[in-house]
Design goal:
Structural class: mainly beta
Radius of gyration: 19 Å
Largest sheet: 5 strands, antiparallel
Number of helices: 1
Strand content: over 45%
Distance between the termini: 50 Å
Helix content: 10-25%
Shape: globular
Amino acid sequence: MASLKSTIAALVVAMACSAPASAHDGVHIDGAYARFLPGAKSGAVFMVIENHSTAEERLISVSTDVAEKAELHTSKIGADGMAQMPLIDGGIALRGGESHVLERGGDHLMIMGLTRKVVSGDVITLTLTFEHAGVVVVEVPVDNAR
């Protein structure tokens, strides 16, 4: 019995050590969620983008299966005191080993021109295109309560 336990333990360790090195190299997306107000034709997506490589990376575009358009935006207060959400020109840069938070009141992904109704509990697909990592597809839960 001890031999079987040792064999199983060795197998578990071997499997963990043989996982592809790329499994956590490059870009990793964490904590993604989307919000769409009832009746709205647009919404926003928030997440943490982690760059696990040593090289600088850049998120250059985004698309989705639920809208005509998806863009990189930021939030700021204009000179007139009004909130604005301008397009981020040139993408979002991530230094090697660092993360970038997309959050309410800051940088975020705008989803515009919804092509179908989206409600809490749905899952939307985002296709993020990075300068070096290429295409990263993310399944994003819709959570309008957040």
